[in-house]
Amino acid sequence: MGSVLVVTGTSTGVGKTVVTAAVAAAALARGRSVAVLKPAQTGVAPDEPGDADEAARLVPGVQAVELARFPEPLAPATAARRAGLPPLTAADAAGMVEKLGHDYDLVLVEGAGGLLVRFDDAGGTLAEVARLVAAPVLVVAAAGLGTLNATELTTEALRRRGLACPGAVVGSWPAAPDLAARCNLADLPATARVPLLGAVPEGAGAYGPREFGAAAPGWLAPALGGHWDADTFRMRQAPGGPGKGQSR
């Protein structure tokens, strides 16, 4: 990994925050200092912890930074407009990334929803932030039915914009995966044309910090600082195989 990694999802609720925390944990285990930046947080009250705070809870030692917060669970541009608050811009987020990059070995930037969710009415998106800071974009995908189309659309949008994508991570691998999830382990990298770089077990966000930190490298491929092997995992989960889920 370089000094900045942008983390997007194929949709909301696919496990971006836990994947971001796992990447942070693997980096800390290798002696790197890490900041997690959430440019726009929506759907959280002023006194509630946001996604960056959750990453820092799971991985003590991570610096959590949030730039803008809006109360309603909507796209940031819509949430800002309805709250009568100034929106976040891609330039704002890029500026903070560059500032944090002076103090931390790795800056992880977690988006809100998918790649092209708008920060403002001028059309600023996470993709624009990645372009401004020349950072690769990791895609977090769902495990089951429908993920092939959503993931391919996301990686296609990245390629059209000239943005690098190191690969995809399954954000919540089921304890009892169905046929679609098992087949997707082979089909997803083939259709999205990026490698599969990990699979985080469902419920990992409920782990305590010590357990999470110890387990996280086993969920991620070496490209993300872990020791997870895609071929071994795929064979274990193949249709007709044991299908025991992700080992911890």
Describe this structure in words.
- By secondary structure, the protein is of the alpha/beta class.
- The chain has one domain (4-237): Rossmann fold, CATH 3.40.50.300.
- 38% of the residues lie in helices and 20% in strands.
- The chain contains nine helices and seven strands, in the order βαβαβααβαβαβαβαα.
- α2 (51-58) links the parallel β2 (34-42) and β3.
- α1 packs parallel to α2 (51-58), α4 (90-101) packs across α5 and α6 (147-160) packs parallel to α7.
- The protein is globular, with a radius of gyration of 17 Å.
- The model has no long low-confidence stretch (mean pLDDT 94).
Topology:
Blueprint: E1 4-9, H1 16-29, E2 34-42, H2 51-58, E3 63-70, H3 76-83, H4 90-101, E4 106-114, H5 126-133, E5 137-141, H6 147-160, E6 168-173, H7 179-192, E7 196-201, H8 209-215, H9 230-237
Parallel strand pairs: 1-4, 1-5, 2-3, 2-4, 5-6, 6-7
Helix pairs in contact: 1-2, 4-5, 6-7
